[in-house]
Amino acid sequence: MSGDPPCWLNQFNDFSMTTALAPELSDYLAKNDRRAHDELFAFLRIPSVSARSEHKGDMTHAAEWLASSMRTAGLQTEIMPTGGHPVVLGEWRGAPAGAKTVLIYGHYDVQPVEPLDLWTTPPFEPAVRDGRIYARGSVDDKGQLFLHVKALEAHLATRGSLPVNVIVLAEGEEEVGSGNLAPFIERHRERLRCDYCVISDSSMFAPGLPSILSSLRGLAYFEIEVRGPASDLHSGIYGGAVVNPATALARIIATFHDEHWHVAIPGFYDDVRDWEPRVLKEMRALPFDDERFRREVGAPALDGEAGRTTLERIWTRPTCEVNGLLSGYTGEGAKTVLPGKAMAKVSCRLVPDQTPDAIKRVLTAHIERVAPRGVSVTVNALHGGLPWRAEMRGPLVDAARRALAGAFGREPVITGEGGSIPVVGDFERILRAPVLLIGFGLPGENAHAPNEWMSDENFVKGTRAVAMLWDELAKPAA
Ligand code: BES
Ligand code: ZN
To answer: Measured from the CA of 107, which atom of ligand 1 is nearest?
Structure first.
């Protein structure tokens, strides 16, 4: 998607500000604004594409650059090996006795940049146009990670201390599935022990409207292979006598949904837990314009599971999607062939309390039931992650509400998200610490696509918001 960001926001009342950033932090951030931008641009110039082996050196460079920047901010910093790209760990543990410990997570790796010809300016030469910082990784997630470093620096440079103990954990493999991170967290469970986790790797609902993310969907990704004859056959000589694997796969896929777009795999919804009415109510109050959204995605019409609004379908309901199909002849002209095999990539987005394992079981059993005779079918699970839903109460959320309202001049809204950040579930499971997701991206930001951008205003206000967050969190409960 490209072009102007959609503005789903109609009208919001101004929120009367009750919280302001401490003057010394505000002055420091204002005075050092140019330097913060210059440094961010230097970070963005490093092509840290985790998926590509030719960028292995750039990954090391990015980790070293980040470690040095965190050290300058006043953190004790270490680059720690994993089975893949390293973790950069920053620590500051000088808070007064009894203070909370907060773990800030982000990632310094970025998605590949192809197709290059669709970028207006090169992906690793940051450019500012219309208040947007264009570069691969600007919003996902270097800009959002770096603003946390700058907020910590403001505290440490002006006061020599922070009101909370801080651990910054920056990984280099988020965009390739975070496969080494859960074992890393397990291994360093004691060192990473914390009261709260905070992540900025998501988006606000609309420009000017700060948002607290209350949910992420999980993921269960499969490859389905249908095998028929030992090799491709002449479709005239053999067609009619041998089951066609492409047709068999199409028949299997057609059983995944009923005519109302409910997933028709028996047991699929068994573990779905109802949404908390309070959170659903806040979601329904969000000013979302279906027609604007339809135009943004360029589809002839919006449709999906019957009886649900668009946002509910994306944020609160599980799905089963075909991600790719491969079979037979797809080149120029015609070729009369009966393919020997067919393959589909299928992924399910999950909601609490579904798990990738349970979904694998029901999907595999269903496919075994519906697969036509004359072909053999295998279902192979690729990666997955648990869904997540926040408690949305407690001192951290309260502090975030105040800090976001103070920085943006508006009470934040509670949003959901259709995408996945698998490590969120790992943090809660292994560290038993609640996670707060406050993202500063915007709709239409082109994450993972050409012309990725981050709003400069959100970089600045996001830094102020998280600087305020630590003071707010340390305030005694009212
Ligand atoms: N940062 C995104 C996920 C995201 C986007 C969260 C917008 C909240 C708002 C992340 O980089 C991503 O793309 N995740 C993948 C999952 C992963 C296992 C490949 C996804 O959701 O497809
Ligand atoms: Zn990301």
So the answer is: 11
In the predicted model, is pLDDT for residue 471 greater than 80? yes
The DSSP bridge pattern shows strands 132-134 and 127-129 to be antiparallel
Q: Pairing state of beta strands 165-171 and 87-92? A: antiparallel
- Please indicate whether residue 270 is annotated as part of the active site: no
Model pTM score:
0.89
Residue 299: CB atoms within 10 A of its CB come to 10
CA distances in angstroms from 253 to 248, 301, 359, 368, listed in the order given: 9, 22, 16, 12
Q: Are 63 and 79 in contact (CB under 8 A)?
A: yes
* Site to substitute for ligand 1 among 173, 421, 448, most atoms within 8 A of C-beta: 421
Check pocket membership of 472 for ligand 1, CB cut-off 6 A: no
Domains of the chain: 7-216+387-474 (3.40.630.10), 218-272+318-385 (3.30.70.360)
Under 8 Å CB-to-CB from 405, ≥6 apart: which residues? 15, 17, 18, 19, 210, 411, 412
DSSP for 129-180, written as a single string: ETTEEESTTIIIIIHHHHHHHHHHHHHHHHHS--SSEEEEEEES-GGGT-TT
Q: Given this model, what pLDDT does residue 5 score?
A: 35
